[in-house]
Specification:
heterodimer; A: 325 residues; mainly alpha; MetI-like fold; 2 domains; two-stranded antiparallel ribbon; 13 helices; 4 strands; 66% helix; B: alpha+beta; D-Maltodextrin-Binding Protein, domain 2; Dipeptide-binding Protein, domain 3; seven-stranded mixed beta sheet; 18 helices; 19 strands; membrane (chain A); transport (chain A); Peptide ABC transporter permease (chain A)
């Protein structure tokens, strides 16, 4: 088997790493950098100024008088704080869902009391009509559990088609173009930064889920998994402690791609004016201000450079080079 | 002052007519559907009778003459339950009765409460609707205008009135193209958020008039209104010749084009001071904004001078109130402009009972009713994709942040914005109020009667109500000016609104066009008088 090595890297890979490190560093230090203006403070005396026209605004200002350099710096923070967690959360969600779907398929069985408790809890949480019915269902679960214990019998079980549920949901989400889905939700209900993070996560998990599921289908047939079953370990433990860590390998490659895709999506949303709140700095929104001031090339050039370099670097990072051991 | 969408008013002006209309060339109200300005008769010391005659030639699309009955129906329709006419009701509440003349069906008298000289102009500024088309059964004839005006909201539903309301609403949405009008154009095509196409009627009744009055001239055979949401695209379309006229042009874009040699070759640029004022409004129904001192303090967070310079390149006028400084008689120049003064704002906040706390949950707090604690934090709502409003909101947020007041900006899509204002779902709004120099009726926007309708701030004060009523009924320009001066002083003291600056009308148009008559009145130019001189076709 080929072994992945970090020993030899091309110059482009090193440049990508340097650029991404710089972005992360700038994002981390945004609050303490000696910037003359915060991105939310307009300088009304200098509206749409070109770069170096005044000593205070090195990269110029936008049509609202915001300092372009500040917006780029704080936009980096937004990009890092929004897209990295969204990519990590979607990878986690996708790994758990895809891993479970691949490991158990449609053959998992869940004790009836858990079914009833879960149904009652979901009913209550979703605030469906007749909330007392949720309580009745949950109480029914407890009664069934108590009766089974009294008679010293194992809980009756019902099948849980995990694979069908996960893949069905992922396919349903995939049938709607992600941009349209996110724009529809964001434009209809309006979103905060946290809401946008949730929205990006909920729409980005199908891809990692498919990758992990495919890997898990191979892993579950390997001898060490069979040995763990034969040793009498509980199925959950086999899945979580032994199989899942091996099934996560594809995410190493997919993670930078996911970040790049989410960065592009966030910028598109901000460009369309349906993404982050206006007080949050964003490269995409800065890019969009060129529509108000078509002659202001600096409003297009600088955020475009940031976006292009970051996305190219992430793509480069995902292309890991196999090196002979 | 009105707040509806100006573009929709412009479109309606092509389909329908009012009794009187503003002549941009004379800068005064002149007869339109009416034959002449109304004759005014004062009755006793509290009533005015306005004697109108409709032009004999005036007809609806189906050939029926426009009658006094139609005017009476239109006034009654304003007060018909089930129609969203709250704002216009407050504007025309002064008309108490319509007296028609059976012998002369195009003659009628409006009986008005009060003796304001303004009534002669204000009474004729509504679109006249066809009774035969909208109420063929004559349901509204069963009610007098006064009965409909006095009808309480809690009155049991009347099936006849409901049917009229339903019919009107259906005509407004489903059968727009078949809308019965007496105006010069017919709406032939439209696509939501895209465009509207108006075709000139081939045999419009006003063509028979000799000479055709300016307000009844309709020269273009076809008018297309194209909705282009962003300035850069609209400018490209204008420069590419796909657009002939670009009204309400943003200042920077206008300035850039005006100084471009290439653009000057194909375009003309017009500018005139308008009666439209960029205004911030406070939701006085919110407990934190219910007192005048807090509102006065927040008024000092707007840097109107810098905003005027930044957004309009200085092309506009700062103001003390909602009367334009160009109206020298009525503008109260003894009042000082509200300064941008954060120290003063903090001092006023302390006077209003607010105390600033530090720490993680820092901010301004004061005791509220029932042992609660009020926290001064604001949500600013404005129409999305409007550069001027976004800049005002951003500047206010930055100033408030310096004081430690958290402000959330809520750019909102146009339709949702109107709804949010109607429902009071905001703390501060930023928008443009459109003024009319001939009418000083502030009932729709600042009177208690307007709360829940056009009075978005929810401002309600018996003193202001009395003053608004007195202005509307003032029996002479001098008295009205005195009352308007007092009104501006009161509004500055109560501060439900912060009028920031009056803006200019900017129009860019193809060099070949004539007859735009760019002026300070809404909508800033006369679309129906535009002409394109015939171009000579080169010989083969």
């Amino acid at each position: 088997m080929a072994r992945l090595s970090s020993g030899s890297r091309s110059w482009s890979h090193k440049a990508a790493c340097v650029w991404l490190a710089l972005v992360v560093l700038v994002a981390g230090l945004a609050g303490v950098l000696p910037l003359p203006y915060l991105p939310s403070v307009p300088d009304l005396a200098h509206i749409a100024q070109p770069p170096f026209a005044t000593s205070q605004h090195w990269l110029g200002t936008d049509p609202q008088g915001r300092d372009v350099l500040s917006v780029l710096v704080f936009g980096a923070r937004t990009a890092v704080l929004l897209t990295l967690p969204a990519a990590a959360l979607s990878a986690l969600l996708g790994a758990l869902a895809g891993g479970a779907a691949g490991f158990w398929g449609n053959k998992a069985r869940l004790p009836v009391p858990y079914w009833l408790l879960a149904t009652g809890g979901a009913w209550w949480a979703l605030r469906l009509p007749i909330p007392t019915l949720a309580l009745v269902i949950a109480a029914g679960g407890l009664v069934v559990a108590a009766l089974a214990r009294l008679r010293q019998r194992p809980f009756p079980t019902w099948a849980v088609p995990i694979n069908a549920i996960v893949m069905g949901t992922a396919t349903t989400l995939d049938t709607i173009p992600r941009l349209i889905l996110v724009v529809a939700v964001a434009a209809g209900a309006g979103v905060s930064s946290a809401g946008l993070l949730g929205l990006l996560t909920l729409t980005a998990w199908p891809h990692p889920a498919r990758l992990v599921r495919a890997q898990m289908l191979r892993i579950r047939e390997l001898p060490f998994v069979e040995a763990a079953h034969a040793a009498g370990l509980p199925a959950f433990q086999v899945w979580f402690r032994h199989a899942l860590p091996h099934a996560l390998q594809p995410l190493r490659t997919a993670m930078p791609l996911s970040v790049a895709s989410l960065l592009g999506l966030e910028s598109t949303l901000s460009f369309l004016g349906v993404g982050l709140p206006p007080e949050v700095a964003s490269w995409g929104r800065l890019l969009s201000t060129v529509r108000q001031e078509p002659a202001a090339w600096w409003l297009f050039l600088f955020p475009a450079i940031c976006l292009i370099f970051t996305i190219l670097s992430l793509l480069n990072l995902s292309r890991q080079q196999p090196v002979a051991a | 002052m009105q707040t509806p969408n100006q573009a929709s008013i412009d479109a309606n002006n092509l389909l329908g007519l009012s009794l009187l209309q503003t002549d941009a060339t004379k800068h005064e109200n002149v007869p339109s559907l009416a034959k002449a300005l109304p004759s005014v008769y004062l009755v006793g010391d509290s009533l005015t009778r306005l004697d109108y005659h409709i032009r004999a030639a005036a007809t609806w699309d189906d050939g029926r003459p426009v009658l006094a009955r139609d005017v009476e129906f239109s006034l009654k329709l304003m007060f018909c339950p089930g129609l969203p006419n709250e704002s216009i009701r407050n504007q025309y509440r002064f008309v108490q009765a319509v007296l028609t003349d059976p012998k002369s069906p195009q003659h009628f008298i409006l009986v008005c409460q009060g003796q304001s000289p303004e009534y002669a102009h204000a009474s004729g500024d509504f679109f006249v609707q066809s009774e035969a088309a909208l109420d063929p059964q004559g349901t509204l004839r069963r009610y007098s205008l006064a009965e409909l005006q006095r009808r309480p909201n809690t009155a049991p539903a009347d099936s006849g009135l409901q049917a009229v309301a339903r019919r009107y609403l259906a005509a407004g949405t489903a059968a727009l193209a078949a809308w019965p009008g007496c105006g010069p154009y017919r709406l032939t095509q439209w696509k939501k958020d895209r465009y509207l196409r108006f075709q000139r009627k081939p045999n419009w009744w006003a063509d028979q008039l000799q000479p055709v009055p300016f307000v009844l001239q309709a020269k273009p055979k076809q008018l297309d209104f194209v909705i282009i949401p962003d300035a850069a695209t609209a400018t490209l379309a204008l420069r590419g010749g796909e657009l002939d006229v670009y009204p309400l042009m943003p200042a920077r874009e206008f300035n850039r084009l005006r100084h471009s040699t290439a653009a000057q070759a194909g375009l003309r640029f017009y500018t005139a001071l308008s009666h439209n004022v960029v205004t911030a409004g406070f939701n006085t129904r919110r407990p934190i904004l219910a007192d005048a001192l807090t509102r006065q303090a927040l008024s000092r967070c707007f840097d109107a001078t810098a905003l005027l310079r930044a957004t309009q390149l200085g092309d506009g006028q700062r103001t003390v109130g909602i009367i334009s400084p160009s109206d020298r008689i009525n503008y109260n120049d003894s009042l000082a402009l509200i300064p941008f003064d954060l120290n003063g704002a903090a001092s006023l906040l302390r006077q209003a009972g607010w105390r600033r706390t530090t720490g993680p949950a820092g901010g301004w707090y004061r005791p509220g009713p029932s042992a609660t604690r009020q926290h001064l934090q604001l949500r600013v709502r404005y129409r999305a994709n409007e550069d001027v409003f976004a800049t005002v909101a951003l500047q206010f947020r930055a100033a408030a942040a310096e004081l430690g007041i958290p402000v959330l900006l809520l750019p909102t899509e146009s339709g949702a914005f109107s709804q949010a204002l109607q429902e009071g779902d905001f703390d501060v709004y930023v928008r443009i109020l459109m003024g009319n120099p001939f009418v000083f009726n502030f009932t729709p926007i600042l009177h208690t009667l307007g709360v829940g309708a056009g009075n978005s701030t929810g401002f309600s004060s018996s003193r202001a109500d009395r003053l608004i009523e007195a202005i509307a009924a003032a029996n002479g320009p001098a008295r009205r000016a005195r009352l308007l001066h007092r009104f501006q002083a009161l509004m500055q003291q109560e501060a439900p609104l912060v009028p920031l600056f009056f803006v200019s009308t900017r129009v860019a148009a193809g060099r070949g066009l004539t007859g735009l008559h760019v002026n300070s009145l809404k909508p800033g130019y006369t679309v129906a008088a535009i002409e394109r001189p015939p171009t000579s076709t080169p010989l083969p």
